[in-house]
Amino acid sequence: MSGKKTINIEDILNHPTVQRVTDNINAELMERRNYSPPASDAFGRKYTVLKETGRYKFTLDQEARRQLPELIDNKVQMIEGLDKADQSFVEQYVKKRNIGIVFSGGPAPGGHNVIAGLYDAAKRANAESKIFGFLVGPDGIIENEAIELSDGLVDAYRNLGGFTMIKTGRTKIDTQEKMKLSKETCRKLNLDALVIVGGDDSNTNAAFLAQAMIADNVQVIGVPKTIDGDIQVRDDEGHVLCAMSFGFHTAARAFAGSISNLCTDSSSDVKYWHICKVMGRVASHLALEVALQTHANMTLIGEDLANYVDMNRLEKAKQQGKADYHAYGMTLRHLSRVICDGIVRRAAVGKNYGVIVIPEGILEFINEIQVFIIKLNTIIAEYNQTHDKDFHSAFPHLEDKLDHLRRLAQRSREDASFKLWNTRDDDLFNDVAAFFQEGLLMERDSHGNFPFSQVETEKVLMGLVKDYLNILKEEGVYKIGILKDYYRKTLEDAGYDPDRYGSVLFENYGKAQYLLVKPSIISVKTLRQALEKAEVITPNEEIPAAVEKIFKKSVPSFKTQIHFYGYDGRGNDPTRFDCIYTYNLGLTVFSLIANGATGQMAAIRNLEKDFSEWEPIGIPIAPLMHLEERKGKLALVLEKSIVDVNSIAFKVVEANRDKWLAATPSGDNFRRPGPIRFTGKSEEERPITLELNALARVEE
Ligand code: FBP
Predict the structure, then answer these.
(1) Of 250, 414, 448, 696, which residue is least crowded by CB atoms under 10 Å?
(2) Distance from residue 585's CA to the centre of ligand 1 (Å)
(3) Which of 171, 201, 228, 637 to mutate to test the pocket of ligand 1 (most atoms within 8 A of CB)?
(4) Ligand 1 pocket, 280 CB below 6 A?
């Protein structure tokens, strides 16, 4: 008889332990839901009031004045607490309001807390006020798809990641028809205010909506959201008004946690190079923060590559009395050489493994690719504007698209004034691998953004790296250094004199801890030739097995593992920093609304300081606008903030490049940021980039 009980699955499923461990609700979730982020001092008072300040100056764009006449003179507003106020202020502040909120663009951890902050403040001012959540992004406004938020719904998502409560989408309200429908929705819901939680493009859209809805008495407020960290606002004198969008800290910590684990793994099994592409669109802020958090061996920063000047080329051209315009900016080929250099240097000290971080938008900073991206953006946008069918439906397959490009090249040959796509562009594009051509031709989003996340940048780059490493291997340059003591032991154990073979085998024998096989020895055949020439073996003699073993150990094989860090980090539950930041942004939004503001973006100043010093403010969006080429046309937009190569954060990473590459006999210099914990001491308080860059803060 077997001693085992018969299992009745019904009983098992009803067992309290099974019920507990398989429940969706766990202790971590409850802890998050029950956490109340502290509110800034001003919000502890009964009311808040806006104090306009002219302290911050912006250079105003004339086109922005023309298109946003009623918003362009908006000022920065400081939010202050108030315990008592006169009757008319109180009536206005606590009046029953209907407020709509929408998420726009990619999810960013903390979004639910923006809603929670707004909801709590609005209900506290007047329990009858209603908050509507538009579903699945701006389409929800256009199509009037909204839900009224309740205590239960808001409480279920407090301090939780994602935008699950009302979802998000990337539609832009950019036509008269969409604007008309949006206005109708606001009228139907009797909205007093509309809140747009989004990135630079969505906040741009918020300003246009604000202008268009002034006559309808609908206030529009923006909130700076994006994991990319590319919404940063400074005034003309460099005063920081918004140092960082929400979600950046969490995403960076999530990416850093995973990449740090790869650093640990690769330095344990010492056989892989891990290639980590990280999100961030054009800007490399996330890659920079990951570098600071993990000290990965190599981190490429797109903005740094654009600044590159090839001094050797310049010098050579100077000697020939010529100018070399190709010396400016890095090419894909050159970049692959830089990566190979790091790989070869580490291999020389026995480290044929490591971790490389590549920002997803790096191609934007590579000369030849940037030209393609810009030209193709324009071609696609122009096609969409002038034809009934959009570019991608008209040319569904790669071959159709390439045919269209060929026709454009033909046109340039017939009409000298047509410069958009010429024969040279076409020839160069035809040299690009098909998968990469497809990537570069992919559908742009409604804001005209290039879909970096879908392009296999790392595949393109690592293809070139692998090719060049093979050349370096054949040239005998890419070799794995052999530890001196290991060499001695191996030969002595086999009964050979290490010194007799050492000077024949290695180029630095007796001079270094890691021995490098001579470049001329690249195969067993060339090894034999070298040994015979030095007369340590005769033509009839076998190569000693121990010597051959050492040689074989010096021959590298380059093995990679490719990873993409993006959607995972974007869906992470927010760090405590992002929980508090976003809750206070929500409270700020309500203050701006209750005080009649419109066309303003909610923000918190002093994020790098202790929480008690945080200052909620409203930033006028219109004065931040400038003209940029979008979809082949000049458009008013908020400027994307990319990594400043003169910033302290970048300088620190740059100064540590060699240290973190660790191409020395001693160990690696990895840093373990640890997991994101909602409570407890081990969590990073705030982004390292934020702390470092604040050291250069312009004092007021
Ligand atoms: P937002 O700019 O909308 O915040 O999106 C950020 C982001 O995560 C980028 O880093 C990334 O390129 C993009 O979204 C990917 O999203 P999608 O798959 O929708 O293009």
Answers:
(1) 414
(2) 21
(3) 228
(4) yes
Ligand 1 centroid to Cα of residue 609, in Å, is 29
* Chain segment 661-674, per-residue pLDDT in tens: 999 999 999 999 98
Verify whether ligand 1 is closer than 6 Å to residue 199 (CB atom).
yes
**Would you state the pLDDT for residue 309?**
84
Looking up residue 93, the CATH number of its domain turns out to be 3.40.50.450
Give the whole-angstrom CA distance, residue 115 versus residue 84: 27
Q: Are 290 and 252 in contact (CB under 8 A)?
A: yes
- Domain that includes residue 128, residue range: 10-246+574-638
Q: Which atom of ligand 1 has the smallest separation from the CA of 279?
A: 10
570 ligand 1 Cβ < 6 A: yes
CA-nearest residue for atom 5, ligand 1, is 106
Q: Which residues contact 265 (CB under 8 A, 6 or more apart)?
A: 274
Residue with the smallest CA separation from ligand 1 atom 10 is 280
Do residues 439 and 352 both lie within one domain?
A: yes
User: Is pLDDT above 70 for 681?
Assistant: no
Q: Rg for the chain (alpha carbons), in Å? A: 30
Residue 1 has pLDDT above 60, yes or no: no
Q: Is 467 part of a structural domain of the chain?
A: yes
- Work out the average pLDDT over 463-491: 97
Active centre residues (catalytic): 228
Q: What is the pLDDT of residues 185-228, one digit of tens each?
A: 999 999 999 999 999 999 999 999 999 999 999 999 999 999 99
3 in a structural domain: no
What tens digit of pLDDT does each residue of 371-394 get? 888 899 889 988 988 898 889 999
254 and 152 in one domain? no
CA distance 20 to 497: 67
User: Ligand 1 atom closest to Cα of 228?
Assistant: 10
The rounded distance, in Å, linking the Cα atoms of 505 and 527 is 8
- Smallest CA separation from ligand 1 atom 19, residue: 106
The predicted structure's pLDDT at residue 684: 66
Same domain, 493 and 427: no
Q: What is the pLDDT of residue 632?
A: 66
Q: Is the CB of 105 under 6 A from ligand 1?
A: yes
Ligand 1 midpoint to CA 320 (Å): 47
My answer on whether 201 and 314 are in the same domain is: no
Is residue 1 situated within a structural domain?
no
Average pLDDT over residues 449-461: 86
Contacting residues for 388 by C-beta, under 8 A, at least 6 apart: none
In a domain, 692, yes or no: yes
- Asked if 306 and 387 sit in the same domain, the reply is yes
Q: How far is the CA of 445 from the centre of ligand 1 (A)?
A: 10
Measured CA to CA, the distance from residue 98 to residue 219 in angstroms comes to 11
What is the CA 440 to chain-centroid distance, rounded? 19
Number of domains in the chain: 3
Q: Is the CB of 452 under 6 A from ligand 1?
A: yes
**Mean model confidence pLDDT for the chain:** 94
In a shared domain, residues 398 and 522: no
Q: From the alpha carbon of 107, which atom of ligand 1 is closest?
A: 4
Residue that terminates a domain, selected from 638, 663, 682:
638
Average pLDDT score over residue span 431-460: 85
Query: Which one-letter DSSP state was computed for residue 309?
Result: B
d(CA 409, CA 415): 10
pLDDT of residue 683: 59
Co-location of 240 and 259 in the same domain: no
Q: Are residues 233 and 300 part of one domain?
A: no
Where does a domain end: 612, 638, 664? 638
Could you tell me the CATH number of the domain that includes residue 310? 3.40.50.460
Interatomic CA distance for residues 485 and 608, integer angstroms: 49
**CB-based contact 343:465 (threshold 8 Å):** yes
User: How much distance in Å is there from the Cα of 105 to the middle of ligand 1?
Assistant: 7
CA quadruple 504, 505, 506, 509: dihedral, nearest 10? -60
Supply the pLDDT for residue 303: 95
